């Protein structure tokens, strides 16, 4: 990496790391987001294509019934059926669960009630989507069908009603997109209650709803730990509800359980800053001259290291000496290098990573003033 590329990459730019933020603002040392090829939206006639990193639980193929089993203790094969590309509940056969188990996730699932309307309230096309087998997002035909609100379609059953009724008419496909975060306990104490966000047919109906222990029928639930992983369960409530296009994407760990985030504990931040500094210094070891200098000095923003500091200061002294030894008629061509150097040292001094009387900084300030490089033109 050249010195110019180092500067362009964001070093000595935004506020540096601090006690609870391991990265600088606009930090190019931060990992780039992984590439995910987006899928496509569903239509009534055709399910959409999942994103490239999705784990498919059901895409309409008959053989995918093997990814599911009865929720009975024996774990026997399910009696639910695959018909016309849909996974259909056989009333009286019992819940089914996925063989795949997962925790925090983005879940996509589509369902349809029968076109022929039968029953009312909780008796009309009732089913449910149970994340980790623990928390139910209600499935119910509430198109012109009132019921108790915390048992409405897309309610977190027994906890919170949806903010809106965004259902299509019976017989049409409904789409649920769910962001799920399970509760986190440490030493028997709740440190994160877990949350669910739900979109129904593109409309947000649950906005980061607190789990309150997971909910349930008739009884108020209370906070409790969940396992790290669990199956997706679909409810048999005696109605022939159909499902299609079921997939999920695992979500990264939260900071509270060791994941990386913008805001982290002081202990986790210190460890991460040390790791970033080590990586920068390893990169610096492959470079020479000016580029090496910048990377070594940049590493000091993350963690102190006497060897890196000493070499960075020596290279800074060498660089200002090279500027000073440049013939006057050629020095103007190095204005950009000089201004970048001043910018980097001013940054390090501003955030007390170098002393205000750092010799190379005083010398570059003097050179810039002599040459009039700091005047506005």
Tell me about this structure:
This protein is of the alpha+beta class and 377 residues long. It has two domains: 3-30 and 263-371, no CATH class; 55-257, Sandwich (Jelly Rolls), CATH 2.60.120. Helix content is 23%, strand content 21%. It contains seven helices and 15 strands. Strands 1, 3, 4, 6, 9, 12, 13 and 15 form an eight-stranded antiparallel beta sheet that branches. A five-stranded antiparallel beta sheet has the order 2-5-14-7-8, with no helix packed on it. It has a two-stranded antiparallel ribbon with strand order 10-11. A hairpin with a 3-residue loop joins strand 7 and strand 8 (135-139). Helix 3 (289-299) crosses helix 4 (306-324). The longest helix is centred in the C-terminal third of the chain and has 19 residues, at 266-284. It starts with a helix and ends in a 6-residue tail after the last helix. The mean pLDDT is 94.
Give the structure's gist in a few sentences.
The chain is α+β, with helices and mostly antiparallel strands. Helix content is 23%, strand content 21%.
């Amino acid at each position: 990496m050249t010195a110019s590329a180092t500067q362009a990459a964001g070093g000595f730019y935004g506020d540096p790391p601090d006690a609870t933020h391991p990265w600088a603002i606009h930090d190019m040392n931060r990992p780039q987001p992984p590439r995910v090829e987006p899928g496509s939206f569903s239509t009534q006639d055709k399910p959409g294509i999942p994103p490239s990193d999705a784990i498919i639980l059901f895409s309409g193929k008959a053989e995918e019934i093997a990814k599911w089993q009865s929720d009975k203790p024996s774990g026997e094969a399910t009696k639910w059926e695959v018909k016309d590309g849909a996974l259909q509940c056989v009333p009286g056969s019992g819940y089914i669960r996925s063989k795949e188990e997962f925790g925090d996730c983005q879940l996509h699932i589509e369902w349809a009630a029968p076109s022929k309307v039968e029953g009312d309230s909780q008796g009309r096309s009732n089913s449910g989507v149970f994340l980790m087998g623990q928390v139910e997002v209600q499935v119910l035909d509430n198109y012109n069908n009132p019921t108790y609100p915390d048992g409405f379609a897309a309610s977190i059953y027994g906890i919170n009603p949806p903010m809106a009724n965004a259902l299509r008419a019976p017989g049409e496909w409904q789409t649920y997109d769910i962001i799920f975060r399970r509760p986190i306990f440490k030493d028997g104490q709740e440190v994160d209650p877990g949350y669910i966000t739900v979109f129904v047919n593109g409309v947000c109906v649950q906005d980061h709803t607190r789990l309150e222990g997971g909910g349930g029928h008739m009884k108020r639930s209370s906070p409790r730990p969940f396992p790290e992983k669990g199956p997706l369960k679909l409810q048999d409530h005696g109605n022939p509800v159909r499902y299609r296009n079921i997939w999920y994407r695992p979500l990264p760990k939260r900071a509270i359980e060791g994941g990386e985030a913008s805001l982290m504990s002081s202990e986790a931040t210190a460890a991460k800053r040390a790791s970033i500094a080590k990586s920068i210094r390893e990169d610096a070891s492959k470079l020479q001259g000016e580029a090496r200098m910048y990377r070594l000095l940049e590493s000091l923003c993350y963690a102190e290291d006497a060897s890196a500091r000493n070499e960075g200061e020596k290279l800074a002294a060498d660089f200002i000496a090279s500027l000073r030894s440049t013939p006057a008629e050629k020095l103007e061509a190095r204005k950009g290098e000089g201004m970048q150097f001043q910018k980097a040292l001013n940054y390090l001094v501003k955030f007390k990573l170098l002393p205000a009387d750092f010799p190379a900084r005083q010398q570059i300030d003097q050179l810039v003033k002599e040459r009039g490089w700091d005047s506005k033109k």
